[in-house]
Predict the structure.
Amino acid sequence: MKHHNKESEPEDSPVHRIADQIHRWTKRNMRKVNDEMIRGAASRLGSGAVSLVIIWFQTRHW
C-alpha cells in the first residue's frame, strides 16, 4: 500500500487536488469532514428509525 505525504505528491496530482479542496471546505465552513460524515450518518439512521416507527404504527393501528 502506498502512503501519500505532502512532499511526494506533485501539485497537479488528483490526491493533492482533493486534499486541497477538503482543506478549503473546512476553512470556509469551520467544520471538520469527520464531524460532517458522522452528522450525516446519524441523520440517515434517525430518518430510517422514524420511518420504521411510522410503518409500525400504520400496520398496528390501521
In short: The chain has a mean pLDDT of 79.
